[in-house]
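Record format v2
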Amino acid sequence: MTLSRREALGLTAGFAAFIAFGPKATIAATPETDAAIKAFTGGAMPAEGKVSLDTPEIAENGNTVPVGVSVDSPMTADSYVESVMILADGNPNPAVATFHFTAISGAAEAKTRIRLAKTQNVIAIAKMSDGSTFMDTKEVKVTIGGCGG
Amino acid sequence: MFSRREFLMAATATSALIGSGMAGRWSKLMAQQSLSEDALLSMEPAGNVTLIHITDIHAQLKPIYFREPSINLGIGEVEGKPPHVTGADFLKLYNIEPGSPDAYALTSEDFAALAKSYGKMGGLDRVATVIKRIRSERGADNTLLLDGGDTWQGSYTANQTQGQDMITVMNALQPDAMTGHWEFTYGTDRVQEVIDSLPFAFLGSNIYDNEWDEPAFEPWKMFERGGVKIAVIGQAFPYTPIANPRWMIPGWSFGIREEDIAAHVEAAREDGAELVVLLSHNGFDVDRKLASRVDGIDVILTGHTHDALPEPVIVNNTLVIASGSNGKFVSRLDLDVTGGKVAGYSYRLIPVFSDVITPDADMAGLIDEVRAPYAAELSRTIGRTESLLYRRGNFNGTFDDLICQALLEERDAQIALSPGFRWGTSVLPGQDITVEDLHNACAMTYPAAYRSTMSGQMLKDILEDVGDNLFNPDPYYQQGGDMVRVGGMGYTIDPAKQIGERISGMTLIATGEAIDPAKDYVVAGWASVNEDTEGPAIWDVVEAHLTNNPTVKLPDNQSVKVVV
């Protein structure tokens, strides 16, 4: 239950953000996230489906949260996944990473680790070779922890 | 369902006595005369396979008192559903007579009085008798014994021996597989050393190597019993590195990872499994949700949240079995598996009444042997209680209040925080408090009692955070502990709200003033998951307090107001 100063500061900041945006915003709670998504999709609203995010429900360590993404799509010259962008909704700069693929990638899958200072939505957006976009959203909780049992 | 028929006589007799206000005088001898080992253990056999399940023993080798919760709220879809039913509502739901042996075993109703009638429960020598009888009735070749974990931690002797007392005794019971949670608080090296030496499988489908992101444990194992191929998938507590110190097991990552379970179910079926069992330490609500989302699991033997339910809960054709804690119960599930399907079942949650079930002599000897080096210390009296001391329940129990009182006074703090563990046994009014009793409430590998300052805002954030671990409407975000216990401060909680909005009315009890978010308070607590936490062990703090205040008198806690 003891907290380091850093954790304590993180918490306080997080709490302020909750008041500003609400604790359970579903998608693109921040204008920054919204702008990043629109820049990636060319202004279109991505559809649900095809792309799936693999994240822990609760982060074991907010400093290095494993995030996996995969897209259910053919990978042929005619139809393939061009790129996948990962966003962390609560980060000051929400666009965390963009993975680029070609038909010869074989499969559109990627794994990385990201830092999350507080509970927030992680968003993945896939852009297909025909320009259509798809998204998946998962909430990742970052807790103080320490009282389970 | 073990209750009605078999206990009818005792039930009727006791309830009549309760009605006449004589519950406290109901003699122990009379109560036990109407119970018999045969009545407790006999069961109409069914089918070709028997699963025996025991879980969350928390290192209780000897019979104990354990009061079940009087409050165990369910939020959202699970509101009012088992196990979120307690006390008189529980008795009504399962048609159990008040004052009956089942009522004593399964609820908190009239606990102190009934405890005097029916005696302690559990004891692994009695559990051995139960298991031996089931094996001999059903045939050892038709039976699987599965241990759901939280087995190696929770007592003075377990802590002294790094779980070795339990490991020795459990090995003698010959389980076929186990999974874990508090086991991991002995640290990577010790856990690895023990697992390498176990004569049975330690399964953990959801434990990954942190560096390579690959499975680190044997995920599942195929058994053949009664001519049936049985796949047992192990699921350790998903939030071990969050609820317990991550630094003790830095190389392992956990999580729910339901897609892995689904993949194992599929692989097991492809390998010819006719029965698929999940041996789980997820907690009841997590397993109920998991059963609804992952097809093809015949049985979930659930653990972690310490619920004891006399009937399976059936979700998506999955039998979810909750076998209680502390050795109070052993579950026997007879299954008729034909043509790769469960055609029928018969279930009994066997209450282990320690004065009724004969101890197995070999096991009793072994238990005494492992405890012998510590016998004098275990029985040393350090105080006496006039009130019932217990922990289990969503909010402060009286044993927690004792611990918080000790932290406030011995550590000269304004506010005390004590973790909402679900383990910890009960002490009856009028009993001496022994070293063993105290350690049953706090034996662990990170017992340092810290003293620090926290702002009012941080205190609120902590309460909100832990409250969300308990009351998040999505079970996958729950960690399965109860609310953090608080001393020196009162608060109001509205469990149905969202994180950040549940807690209000935080008040410093000593002065009656509202907690100021910007002000710092001196806080004492224990069981921090952070490395290098400094302070005396919590048991030394409580013992010092008892030395100064040898008689404990604590009414039920009134400082937490729950908005229902």
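Residues 84 and 146 of chain A are 35 Å apart (CA to CA).
The domain at 5-140 of chain A is CATH 2.60.40.2470 (Immunoglobulin-like).
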